[in-house]
Amino acid sequence: MFDIKEELKKLPGSPGVYLMKNELDQIIYVGKAVSLKNRVKQYFQQSKNHSIKTIRLVEQIKSFEYIVTTSELEALVLECNLIKRYNPKYNIRLKDDKHYPYIRVDIHNVFPRVTVVRKMKKDGAKYFGPYTDSNAMWEMVEFIKKTWPLRTCTRVLPRDINKERACLNYHIGQCSGPCIAEINETDYKAIIEEVVSFLGGKYQDIIKRLEKSMEEASMNLEFEKAALLRDQLTAIKKIEQKQTASNSSMEDQDVIAFARSEKDTLMQIYFVRQGKLIGREHFLINDTQGEDIEQIFSDFIVQFYSEATFIPKQILVEKMPEDQQVVEEYLTMHKGSKVSLILPQKGTKHNLLELASKNAYITLSQFGDEIRRQEARTQGALSEIQEALGFNIQLNRIEAYDISNTQGIESVGGMVVFEKGKPKRSDYRKFKIKSIQGPNDYGSMEEVLDRRIARLVQKGEEDSFTKMPDLILMDGGKGQVGVAEKILDKYKLNIPVCGMVKDDKHRTRGLLYQNEEILLKPTTEGFKLITRIQDEVHRFAIEYHKKLRSKAQVQSVLDDIKGVGKERKKYLMNHFKSVELLRQASVEEIESVPGITKDVAMNIYTFFHKR
């Protein structure tokens, strides 16, 4: 039996990490200490200075263990890794851990492309971002595509030059055609330099060049070219005017401020890139009454930047962490170059910090209740499901499965993922059934789960398939649950499986777990979350099934027309959108499609009208 008093006597005075455990031997808190002996003892001493969260924590501690480290920095790194691994109940947990998107330009390529990525790598490419407003980012990407004729294909150039016909983008003037040698490397690189300048916010250089080119085109009576340049100029000036919040330093900075209520703390972070404010994000940290704000800042900074793809050289903070030096060392180690925490007292940086602080209070007052409602719909709902099923484990990742077909034709499977009560669409997966013929939902589901679980147990590069779900939900009853349990037994995995059962009107009724139906009240957030998951997996599977049936219908019709191959099918469908609209088109309308000759247009028209 674990005797806490005896174990406290054995604690060393060296730096390290301690792990507090409850009666189920679950890790509920991870902390670091300069002296393990002094820090851990403080928890079990009567103190009026204990926060409410610390008091609740101590009430649940039944045992602890510790790991000795050689330095406080090593303890901080280990603490951070253990928090990510165990997700303890009483540590700060940022609810929003998404990776913000970047715009990537692979300038090391002979003919570079512009793409959107979620992680920044040391691969020689140029990255711009992160963009917290994904809609604004996609607007910028679309603007680049329409303004500069860059390639979007994945062909390996110059190896694949002239191996295939040009794509549709070339025919409509949105690609300069490097794949068919219509532009050389030097001219293409000049276009890329303009795009890089634009993404870097150097609008004035581009505006001056466009104005000069427009004047030259007008002087040479090239009015069509001049009009095109004028439209580009107007669009760039409009984007420039949107960048109203900026400073003259041209530095990359993050600005962290806070606002507190009686129970919670809201952390507001502003992202400043090259002197321009590009976005902000906020995080609500619950039950912080009685906790030192300096400690909250320290925990927040370490957790946020442990997952960040980019760390600026300067981080402006409204409160300086007590362990400032160790936190700076940690950030410097992650970035690979010096990172400084700054508490500005005056000037532009101070004004920016004040702006963030004011907005933090506005966000807390305006959206605090909404944030709590969102948490009730997500984290609260998971807790209700967890309690109803009698789980000791904390639910985080839920995977749900459904099969869709029409009389066994084009059978497909859909997998949706919910993490922390929210859909994680990047982890959704579609399965085209390969081994089953005819309407066999059980056999189809067995194939889907076998393929998915096989990927789970394989050792390879980390992706969504290598993440272990905490719960699997099947859109069906006992039969579908049995299929899932059979596959899990095959791979010797212990993952709980529930069936999502429906009533006579095909509406969610409850969960089937271990042959027992678990009913939740329809008014609870847990019940509503199950309904959302069931509706989402059903929608996802049906949409994929409809898409495959539509594609099969198009392929079967157009494959019989002489002169219509893979590329021409793509051009025709992009233009007419459906076989029925193509059927109604005249020869002239068909011939107007890029890549369609007069003979092929006549073949298509004759094919439909003979029938």
TrEMBL record:
GO BP annotation list: nucleotide-excision repair; SOS response
SMART domains: GIYc
Pfam family, one: UVR
Residue ranges of domain GIY-YIG in the record: 13-92
Domain UvrC family homology region profile: 255-488
This protein's GO CC annotations: cytoplasm; excinuclease repair complex
Localization terms from the record: Cytoplasm
Single Gene Ontology MF annotation: DNA binding
Superkingdom classification of source: Bacteria
Keyword Transmembrane helix part of the UniProt annotation: no
Keyword annotations from UniProtKB, A to Z: Cytoplasm, DNA damage, DNA excision, DNA repair, Excision nuclease, SOS response
InterPro entries, alphabetized: DisA/LigA_HHH (IPR041663), GIY-YIG_endonuc (IPR000305), GIY-YIG_endonuc_sf (IPR035901), GIY-YIG_UvrC_Cho (IPR047296), RuvA_2-like (IPR010994), UVR_dom (IPR001943), UVR_dom_sf (IPR036876), UvrABC_protein_C (IPR050066)
UVR domain location: 204-239
Function: The UvrABC repair system catalyzes the recognition and processing of DNA lesions. UvrC both incises the 5' and 3' sides of the lesion. The N-terminal half is responsible for the 3' incision and the C-terminal half is responsible for the 5' incision.
Protein family (similarity comment): Belongs to the UvrC family.
Known partners and oligomeric status: Interacts with UvrB in an incision complex.
Name this polypeptide is given: UvrABC system protein C
Naturally occurring in which organism (per UniProt): Holtiella tumoricola
